Amino acid sequence: MNKKIIHLISLALCLCLALSSCSNKEKQRVENSREKSQTEETTNKDEEKEKNKDKLEKKEEAKDKKEVTDESEDYKKAGLLYNKILDNIDSYEFSDMGEDAEITYTYDLVYTRSSDIPDLLVAQNTEYGLSYLKIFSPNDDFTKEISADEIITIGVASAGGFRGVISQNADFTSLLYTTFLSGTGEGKEEEITTYIKDDSLKINRDILWEGNISDKAKDEAHMIYFSDIDDREKIESLASNKNEDFRKVLSEIKKKEEADNNEDSAIKEEDIQSSSQEQVDSDQTVVSGVVRVFNHDEMIEYQDINPELLPDMGEIYVVLFADEAVDITLLTGAGDGYHTNISDMISLPTDMDIYQDQHITISFGPDDGHWQSDFSLPINAARMRNVNVIE
């Protein structure tokens, strides 16, 4: 009986051990399966994450490429639009000069705000020494131009003494506009910027300086060299620009223009020196000196004349004060032939007020002026109708 019980107990223990072993194996299998599943899930997640990362990077690359392409397209579109404006420049309103006026057009590319695209600055040039400027910009989608109604005047007026000069500021964000009157020298400098409102280009003017032009400090600015409208090299540079800041491109263009201008000036100086020698070798009188401009009261005071003797008729007097007194042969005002006087003061044509405060060299012949026969200003000065500025 005891043996039978012992045998049953042994069988039961064996069964328990077998069941336990099976249970452990199943547990291990489940755990292994779970670990494998988790590993596969993690791997899948990592792979998916990597795929998403690649997609994102490709998307960003595509976006960057599109932005570069779009920017290049903007430059191209602006170039096409500016060419169209110049091709039809006669259809735009500048200053009304009349049908018979001799007019030419020139242009430059300038910046008047923080836009990537430069503006088109067009000059209507007249035979009277003045030019009238109009600023053009593209609209947002480059489908048409927008322009400012306001006209900017530069140049030298044939009467009234107006002088106007425009330049690009140093960092290519605005224009510098300087005006003054040659008779008094009084003037101002304005910063010109633009903004777009209601599909129209508006101009801002901020005064930077006021005073006498002789006291004005030199600006750190880029000179504007206008190109003939048939010369589209600058616009071609704009249209072909890729992703480079065009301000840098324009800066290099300005440097080349300045170098070319300096070279032209050097050649002109050589021509002037040669011309000066030719004048000396001929019957021409050559005189060097400083040009001064006087109004009536200033001339009266300078020559110490009673103001009651000569009424103020609003004249200006342009006078060259020679470095040294020279013999000058001219016709007499009375019409009795030529007369030679020694003088250090020469009255110049009034349109030579553009040389105010400059040291120049002039030449003239006996028939280019006369000695006065009346009591008029400036007293005892050779009166010139025509002179040749050779330096």
Can you walk me through this structure?
With 391 residues, the protein is of the alpha+beta class. The protein is 35% helix and 34% strand. The longest helix has 86 residues, at 2-87. It is elongated.
Topology:
Elements: H1 2-87, E1 103-110, E2 119-126, E3 130-138, E4 145-147, E5 152-156, E6 162-169, E7 175-181, E8 186-197, E9 200-212, E10 221-223, E11 227-228, H2 233-239, H3 246-281, E12 285-295, H4 296-302, E13 316-332, E14 338-348, E15 359-364, E16 369-371, E17 382-384, E18 388-389
Parallel strand pairs: 13-16, 14-17
Antiparallel strand pairs: 1-2, 1-11, 2-3, 3-4, 3-5, 5-6, 6-7, 6-10, 7-8, 8-9, 12-13, 12-15, 13-14, 15-18, 16-17
User: Helicity range of the residues?
Assistant: 25-40%
Are there runs of 5+ residues with pLDDT below 50, and where? 62-69
Number of distinct beta strands: 18
Q: What is the string of helix and strand elements?
A: HEEEEEEEEEEEHHEHEEEEEE
Mean pLDDT comes to: 82
SS summary, helix count: 4
The separation of the N and C termini measures: 147 Å
Assign an overall shape.
elongated
Major sheet size, sense and barrel closure: 11 strands, antiparallel
Multimeric state: single chain
Beta content comes to 25-35%
Structural class determined from secondary elements: alpha+beta
Radius of gyration: 42 Å
